[in-house]
Specification:
- With 169 residues, this protein is α+β, with helices and mostly antiparallel strands.
- It is globular.
- The N and C termini lie far apart (86 Å).
């Protein structure tokens, strides 16, 4: 065969029509393989599926001032109205279906001589969330409704060293 007479449409070893058929066949095989793979889990008995992947219940949440659900927040605003009391640097030891416990710092504005001119003071604290109840408007979600603050050194005056508040948000 004369090299000057090579059919340019056959470069790459296959004619364009053949390349199109090969590409179409390859795509059809790939689609068939994906469809077959998707059908395999349906053949697994339901008992085997639940035995290998048990469903964990949804975690209980704590709701913040902005009605946002949180799990293990690093910070939590206690004084929603003025922002003068915030839990920070929370390190959660546990987060369960009944209670959650953390250690951290309660940053409290001393409001001296008045809150706008006051200074934030740090108080080490242990935090316990408890009393989960259904969250209104969110079926299937439980939220903690109580927070206990146990100050591990001194408490901000005039607060007691061990105090529990109802979470109403």
């Amino acid at each position: 065969m004369d090299a000057s007479r090579v059919d340019a449409s056959r470069i790459g070893g296959l004619a364009p029509a053949t390349r199109t058929r090969v590409r179409t066949a390859t795509l059809l095989c790939a689609a068939a393989a994906l469809a077959a793979g998707a059908a395999v889990p349906a053949a697994v008995p339901a008992s085997a599926q639940t035995a290998t992947a048990p469903m964990d219940p949804s975690p209980v949440v704590v709701v913040d001032c902005f009605s946002q659900a949180q799990v293990r927040p690093q910070e939590y605003l206690l004084a929603c109205g003025d922002g003068n009391n915030r839990l920070v640097k929370l390190r959660w030891n546990s987060w369960g279906q009944r209670t959650a416990t953390a250690t951290g710092t309660d940053m409290v504005n001393d409001c001296t001589p008045y809150c706008a001119a006051g200074r934030f003071r740090a108080y080490p604290v242990t935090v316990t969330l408890s009393h989960p109840r259904p969250w209104a408007g969110h079926p299937d979600v439980q939220r903690y409704t109580s927070i206990r603050l146990l100050y591990t050194d001194k408490a901000p005056p005039p607060v007691a060293k061990d105090v529990t508040y109802k979470l109403v948000y």
